Amino acid sequence: MSDFAAFLEPGMRVEAPSHPDWGVGQVQSNVAGRVTVNFPDMGKMVIETSRVMLLPVFDR
């Protein structure tokens, strides 16, 4: 898990820079490097943060 991913909490908005088509999603849970995110157009996805970087979105 990336150092930052440990700080992702339910309710935070995130995006995956390597998958811009996913848009901005909301974190549902973060357990042992597996973050569940609900993306409006893609649905609920479980993301392994060792494979896909998630960045917080503060201003959209």
Domain module count: 1
Shape: globular
**Residue-averaged pLDDT:** 92
CATH topology: SH3 type barrels
CATH architecture: Roll
Low-confidence stretches: none
Helical content stands at: under 10%
Element-by-element helix/strand order: EEEEE
Rounded to the nearest angstrom, the radius of gyration is 10 Å
| Terminus-to-terminus distance | 25 Å
Structural class assignment: mainly beta
The CATH first-level class comes to: Mainly Beta
Total E-strand runs = 5
Q: What is the count of helical runs?
A: 0
How is the main sheet built?
A: 5 strands, antiparallel
For the biggest β-sheet, the strand order reads 4-3-2-1-5
Strand content: 35-45%
Question: Could you outline the blueprint of secondary structure elements for this entry?
Answer:
Blueprint: E1 13-15, E2 25-31, E3 34-39, E4 43-48, E5 55-56
Antiparallel strand pairs: 1-2, 1-5, 2-3, 3-4
